[in-house]
């Protein structure tokens, strides 16, 4: 298993390299002058030009790119054009917030969506199923900024149950997590439902019934573990996407996370922050995917065999042959 | 009294495309310690009968329309679900057709056997259940050091042996084996059959063997029932069926077997196709294909005992009933 | 199966309980000692010489002191300066209060003042604004006397020194920590001390108990939160989660007025929103009749009503009516017939397709303008772009959306980009305008200066290089109990006097 992990980590390097090249190129060709943005409309052309020199914006593309790469190798992601802070520090300050939000959103979506999916599958085509599917469809169709504002108005203004914006304690996380989580519920539910439906019709479920097992134990003990495998992958991917920053939600709820930082940086043509942010998100998402894949292997014994080294496999073969030979009773 | 006594069992599948009349009034008995072969083509109603005994017919769309299934003094069709769960695996076990998919891929093999033990032995500890599971594995010839492996690490034949181990774990009175060797190659088939026979001798378990393979029946069964279109066409001992073949369908089955001692260019299959279960003929279901079909066959033929223990459902044997009142009046 | 349902029910119940337990925050027992303000934009730094953010212009004077301040009515009063006098046209001598201490305990002396002016003249964010000050020749006469020099006679010198760019920094501190740290950890001599800055979230200041002046801060803690979403900001004040909210948009005013305990205060701003005409590069705009025709074609009152929904007034000159020396000179009232007449007279080529450029903020505005022009048959099309692209392309488009904010309160601030020599966006080329601009800067006598501005406004109107349209209002959401708040035209109210 360790070999596999190390291999994946090594694969990460070309992936991230491509990401940096891509984002660097995109920022390079995008119109808009960071120097002008920072100095404002009033500044003279000379001032802007001088600032461009300072920022190194006039150097050729590859020079700038390699300078950037060398910086990364030293752990230096550059300096923000506007705040003059090291980009790494800015990301380090904003990322935990986004991470916590992504975690809460994923947990909420899973805790509500998966059981609903299970119930939907078990009671397929009954009222519960239709209700859950419809509700899920409604939530996934709602635009998040509208939903967020509605939640603020209802729970924050009218009912005064929760604060309306900011990030100063656990109660501040509820409305934003629910807003984004509701969309996640629909996906989780549908995935769980279809996976459960497939699994429930399997032969081994029939075997379990023939053993005289109770329906409940069949669902939870037999069907669930098999049905949840594709759902786990989906949850991992969703978590990675959420870490990319729930931009709109952060905007509406004034949460100081990565999404808002990136949007502002793009608008200001704050290249180092955009590059650093994208790179970090790519890295974090890749790590999350890796963790999910490893987890998957632990949950599904069929996959674990793939990661077992060849040595172990050879040791197993003679055991099998012996067992076959000893079959005659 | 028979261990298992099925009377006039009728099971339909009510679907949107029509009503599938899978089982149409069959009678079957199985004595204690006996082995009965249920023979028929695909779609004849064999698996449905088996599932019907255990109450495992998927409820939409399947429905038991009538009949009684007497087992150990109770009608299984009227038994509440909780008791049925105790019977499944405890008194009646089932071995399914496809070993490749019948085991849960994420549970260890020993745990799947232990689960059976835990279900039917109240108060037993997990450790004891494990011990019993290992015993069962040994009994079917799987070494103990493979107990903690997963199904995908076993071959088809070994998987089927695990399934048999599961079925026998709680010493059931009866096993229903639904084509247990169909998915296996011939050498493994021989091994599995030998094992089943040996276990039966040791434990005295009754066996309902569902198969379409007359060779397997000959090897392992005491009695045979031939099923077609959801009805029993012929029933009797091995002697009766193999040497005193009566029903034209049974004759047709034997006739279509390839033979080593004859040199022929073509096989002789039964003409025609199995009937559409949503649209069965009114009279004898085999009628349209029967080489000896007459007009009389358009009425449902009665089930007649033509010699002690040998029953046939065919108009040809209508006048040969040794019991003129007909089987229906017994009991 | 029922077990799963009950499990789900328990989870949902727990979530509710968590939420309910968490609500009911914000106790209001006793007289409050802190203030929470919510505004739209987070500044990039709090270095008075290195940013152009209005938010910073509000916070910096709380942390730092300036030499002088300016009231709403335009009166200059002394802060650090005990007194001052003009030695000559280009020199002002200030006498500083003695015993002024920075927050780290060191003394504020004339050296710090000289240092600040010199730094401000060359720093990126302030050099355009402070370009008139001759930092090299500013002199610390003694510990508490300093001479400030300007290159030429500069009438608005005191006004400019009263702006946030005039904050006095500690020379020792800046030299010790460097520009980058200063940007994030300001240290001055003001009524409030800097406590912390959570990026993307808030800046927190606390009372300076050792403030040298008589009037200390009236609250213990001041928090400035950044909420960029208009609706969210309005909801904050509506629910009373904050005490003061800036940049309330038109659609939220009613809700805030209806809510208990809060109200809306509106005042005119120093801003101007214009249709910019790039006369230098486009021949077809160089005929003044064409420009005037474009002005006649617009029903500006209707545009103001539609775009700003009544939270603005139609401009009648080239800067806000709240600035001193303002006179209504605008002479191109809506007259589409006259517009067509003038265009024909000028030989206008009706096939010309005028390109109009704007950022997302000016989109509605420009669409309204385009509609009016289309109504008289002018062909035009709008290119909308994100703001950063606009600033770099504006030089190359005939018509563009322009906003200006004479935040300092001096009318010169509203027009100082209009010379042909400056490289700001709004560039006029008439020599007359150049002459008048130079003159008004140099004219110290207020009465004469006023005359110059009157003349300037008339000339600007005649030249019609820009079409002024609207001056939006400043809209603040305020808690009823909050005292000491004076709505400011420049959207940089004095926050040091707020209290309960």
Query: Biggest β-sheet of chain C: count, sense, barrel?
Result: 12 strands, mixed
Helix-strand topology string of chain A:
HHHHHHHHHHHHHHH
Structural class of chain A: mainly alpha
Give the overall form of chain C: globular
- At the third CATH level, what is the topology name of the largest domain in chain C? Dipeptide-binding Protein, domain 3
Strand content of chain C: 15-25%
Tell me about the largest β-sheet of chain A: none
How many domains make up the coordinates of chain A?
A: 2
This entry's quaternary arrangement is: heterotrimer
Mean pLDDT of chain A: 84
CATH fold label of the largest domain in chain A: MetI-like fold
Cα-to-Cα separation, first versus last residue of chain C: 58 Å
Number of strands of chain A: 0
Tell me the name of the CATH homologous superfamily of the largest domain in chain A: MetI-like
Q: In percent, how helical is the residue content of chain C? A: 25-40%
Could you give the topology of this structure?
The complex is a heterotrimer of chains A (329), B (331) and C (500).
Chain A: H1 2-29, H2 34-39, H3 45-55, H4 61-73, H5 87-122, H6 127-141, H7 144-158, H8 171-200, H9 203-210, H10 215-243, H11 247-253, H12 258-267, H13 271-299, H14 301-307, H15 310-325
Chain B: E1 4-15, E2 18-30, E3 35-39, H1 46-54, E4 62-71, E5 74-75, H2 81-87, E6 92-95, H3 99-102, H4 109-120, H5 126-139, H6 156-168, E7 174-178, H7 186-203, E8 206-211, H8 214-220, E9 223-228, E10 231-237, H9 238-243, H10 248-255, E11 304-307, E12 310-312
Parallel strand pairs in B: 3-8, 3-9, 6-7, 7-8
Antiparallel strand pairs in B: 1-2, 1-4, 4-5, 9-10, 10-12, 11-12
Chain C: H1 2-22, E1 34-39, H2 54-63, E2 68-70, E3 76-78, E4 81-88, E5 91-96, H3 110-122, E6 139-142, E7 145-149, H4 157-161, H5 171-184, E8 192-198, E9 202-207, E10 221-226, H6 230-238, E11 244-245, H7 250-258, E12 262-268, E13 271-277, H8 288-296, H9 300-308, E14 312-314, H10 336-345, E15 353-359, H11 363-375, E16 379-385, H12 387-393, E17 399-405, H13 411-415, H14 431-442, H15 446-463, E18 466-479
Parallel strand pairs in C: 1-10, 1-11, 15-16, 15-17
Antiparallel strand pairs in C: 2-3, 4-5, 5-7, 6-7, 8-9, 9-10, 11-18, 12-18, 13-17, 13-18, 14-18
Helix pairs in contact in C: 6-7, 8-10, 9-11, 14-15
């Amino acid at each position: 298993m360790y070999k596999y992990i190390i291999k994946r980590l090594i694969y990460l390097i070309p992936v991230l390299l491509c990401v940096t090249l891509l984002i660097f190129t995109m920022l390079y060709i995008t119109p808009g002058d960071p120097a002008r943005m920072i100095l404002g409309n009033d500044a003279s052309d000379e001032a802007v030009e001088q600032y461009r020199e300072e920022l190194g914006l006039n150097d050729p593309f590859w020079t700038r790119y390699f300078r950037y790469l060398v910086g990364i190798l030293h752990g230096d992601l550059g300096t923000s054009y506007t705040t003059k802070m090291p980009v790494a520090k800015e990301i380090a300050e904003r990322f935990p917030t986004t991470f916590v939000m992504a975690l809460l959103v994923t947990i909420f979506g899973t805790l509500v969506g998966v059981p609903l999916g299970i119930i939907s599958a078990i009671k397929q085509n009954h009222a519960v199923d239709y209700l859950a599917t419809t509700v899920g469809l409604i939530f996934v169709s709602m635009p998040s900024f509208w939903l967020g504002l509605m939640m603020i108005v209802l729970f924050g203004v009218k009912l005064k149950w929760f604060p309306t914006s900011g990030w100063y304690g656990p109660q501040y996380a509820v409305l934003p997590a629910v807003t984004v989580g509701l969309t996640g519920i629909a996906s989780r539910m549908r995935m769980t439902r279809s996976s459960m439906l497939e699994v429930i019709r399997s032969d081994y479920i029939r075997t379990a019934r023939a053993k005289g097992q109770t329906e409940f134990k069949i669902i939870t003990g037999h069907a669930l573990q098999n049905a949840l495998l594709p759902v786990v992958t989906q949850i991992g991917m969703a978590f990675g996407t959420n870490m990319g920053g729930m931009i709109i939600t952060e905007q509406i709820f004034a949460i100081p996370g990565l999404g808002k930082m990136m949007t502002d940086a793009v608008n200001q043509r704050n290249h180092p922050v955009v590059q650093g942010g994208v790179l970090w998100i790519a890295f974090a998402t890749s790590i999350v995917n890796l963790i999910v894949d490893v987890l998957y292997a632990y949950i599904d014994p069929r996959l674990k065999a793939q990661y077992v080294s060849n040595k172990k496999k050879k040791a197993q073969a003679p055991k099998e042959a012996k067992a076959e030979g000893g079959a005659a009773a | 009294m028979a261990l298992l006594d099925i009377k006039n069992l009728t099971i339909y599948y009510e679907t949107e495309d029509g009503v599938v009349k899978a089982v149409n009034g069959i009678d079957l008995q199985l004595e204690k310690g006996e082995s009965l072969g249920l023979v028929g083509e695909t779609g004849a109603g064999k698996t449905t009968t088996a599932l019907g005994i255990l109450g495992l017919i998927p409820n939409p769309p399947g429905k038991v329309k009538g009949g009684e299934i007497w087992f150990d003094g109770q009608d299984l069709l009227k038994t509440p679900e909780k008791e049925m769960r105790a019977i499944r695996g405890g008194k009646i076990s089932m071995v399914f057709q496809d070993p490749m998919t019948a085991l849960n891929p994420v549970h260890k093999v020993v745990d799947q056997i232990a689960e059976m033990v835990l279900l039917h032995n109240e108060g037993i500890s997990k450790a004891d259940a494990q011990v019993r599971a290992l015993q069962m594995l040994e009994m079917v010839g799987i070494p103990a050091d493979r107990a903690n492996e997963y199904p995908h690490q076993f071959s088809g034949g070994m998987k089927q042996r695990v399934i048999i181990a599961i079925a026998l774990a709680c010493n059931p009175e009866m096993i229903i084996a639904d084509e247990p060797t169909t998915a296996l190659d011939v050498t493994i088939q021989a091994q599995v059959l030998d094992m089943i026979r040996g276990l039966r001798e040791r434990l005295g378990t009754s066996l309902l063997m569902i198969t379409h393979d007359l060779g397997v029946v000959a090897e392992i069964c005491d009695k045979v029932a031939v099923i077609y279109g959801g009805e029993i066409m012929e029933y009797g001992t091995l002697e009766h069926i193999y040497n005193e073949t009566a029903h034209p369908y049974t004759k047709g089955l034997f006739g279509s077997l390839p033979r080593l001692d004859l040199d022929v260019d073509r096989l002789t299959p039964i003409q025609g196709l199995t009937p559409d279960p949503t649209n069965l003929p009114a009279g004898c279901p085999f009628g349209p294909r029967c080489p000896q079909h007459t007009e009389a066959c358009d009425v449902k033929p009665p089930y007649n005992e033509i010699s002690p223990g040998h029953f046939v459902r065919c108009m040809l044997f209508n006048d040969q009933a040794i019991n003129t009142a007909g089987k229906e009046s017994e009991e | 199966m029922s077990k799963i349902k009950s499990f789900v029910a328990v989870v949902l119940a727990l979530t509710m309980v968590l939420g309910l337990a968490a609500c009911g925050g914000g106790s209001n027992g006793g007289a409050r000692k802190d203030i929470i303000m919510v505004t739209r934009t987070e500044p990039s730094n709090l270095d008075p010489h290195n940013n152009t953010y209005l938010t910073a212009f509000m916070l910096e004077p709380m942390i730092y002191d300036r030499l002088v301040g300016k009231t709403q009515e335009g009166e200059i009063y002394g802060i650090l300066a005990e007194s001052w006098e003009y030695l000559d046209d280009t020199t002002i001598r200030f006498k500083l209060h003695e015993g002024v201490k920075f927050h780290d305990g060191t003394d504020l002396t004339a050296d710090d003042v000289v240092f600040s002016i010199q730094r401000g003249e060359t720093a990126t964010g302030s050099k355009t604004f402070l370009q008139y000050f001759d930092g090299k020749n500013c002199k610390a006469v003694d510990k508490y006397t300093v001479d400030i020099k300007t290159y030429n006679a500069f009438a608005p010198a005191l006004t400019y020194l009263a702006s946030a760019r005039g904050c006095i920094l500690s020379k020792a501190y800046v030299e010790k920590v460097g520009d980058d740290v200063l940007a994030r950890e300001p240290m001055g001599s003001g009524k409030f001390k800097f406590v912390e800055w959570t990026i993307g979230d808030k800046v927190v200041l606390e009372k300076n108990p050792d403030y040298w002046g008589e009037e200390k801060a009236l609250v213990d803690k001041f928090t400035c939160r950044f909420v960029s979403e208009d609706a969210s900001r309005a909801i904050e004040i509506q629910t009373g989660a904050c005490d003061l909210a800036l940049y309330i948009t038109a659609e939220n005013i009613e809700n805030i007025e209806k809510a208990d305990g809060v109200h809306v205060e509106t005042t005119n701003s120093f801003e101007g929103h214009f249709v910019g005409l790039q006369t230098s590069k486009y021949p077809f705009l160089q005929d003044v009749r064409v420009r005037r025709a474009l002005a006649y074609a617009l029903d500006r009152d209707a545009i103001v009503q539609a775009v700003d929904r009544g939270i603005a007034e139609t401009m009648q000159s080239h800067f806000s009516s709240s600035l001193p020396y303002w006179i209504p000179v605008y002479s191109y009232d809506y007259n589409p017939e006259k517009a067509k007449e003038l265009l024909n007279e000028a030989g206008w080529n009706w096939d010309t397709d005028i390109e109009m450029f704007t950022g997302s903020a000016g989109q509605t505005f420009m669409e309204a303008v385009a509609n009016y022009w289309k109504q008289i048959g002018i062909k035009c099309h709008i290119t909308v772009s994100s703001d950063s692209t606009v600033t770099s392309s504006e030089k190359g488009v005939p018509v563009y959306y322009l906003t200006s904010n004479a935040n300092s309160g001096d009318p010169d601030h509203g027009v100082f980009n209009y010379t042909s020599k400056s490289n700001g966006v709004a560039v006029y080329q008439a020599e007359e305008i150049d002459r008048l601009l130079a003159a008004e800067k140099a004219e110290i006598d207020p009465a004469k200066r006023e005359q110059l501005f009157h003349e300037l406004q008339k000339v600007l109107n005649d030249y019609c290089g820009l079409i002024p349209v609207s001056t939006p209002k400043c809209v603040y959401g305020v808690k009823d109990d909050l005292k000491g708040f004076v709505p400011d035209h420049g959207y940089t109210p004095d926050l040091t006097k707020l209290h309960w």
